[in-house]
Prior knowledge:
mainly alpha
Amino acid sequence: MVDFDRHVRRGHPVIFGFIILFSIIELAISAWLVSRFNLRHDYLSIDVRDRTRFLLFTSCWTIFFSLFYFALFLHSPSGGIMTSIVSHAAFLIITWIFWTAGAAAITAALGGGLNCDAHFTYCGQLNALEGFSWVVWIFVTFALLVVFLRGIAASRRGDGFRGGLVA
């Protein structure tokens, strides 16, 4: 059997670093758009306004908890309930649901994206908001898949889902 502990020890900070980085980018875009929408009331529709606010919440949620899990994993990758497979799975499932809902909702509100030749207000920013939301969704999906695979490996070695991501 191949030992993936070394890969998880290296990969966890990398994938969580990307999740944090792109969530910060999403936070900046969505916060700027929400401030403009609140100040000028020039949003395309109420759907776009509300979905941008939800993506602002989702990016804040992701940054806060990803930093928490990132720091805990660097401190103690193999011990503790907070670095366990079940804890990571619970966080990533909730986060995945938020990003799926947010990315799909903004995509639906924008009709799959805006053609900036038609001179929509905040066209480039809204397209970036949509694009980066799908980027974060991809990273969270990948992290969730790895956690599930590590859960299967932990159950086979007898640790169960309470075991750590690394043995």
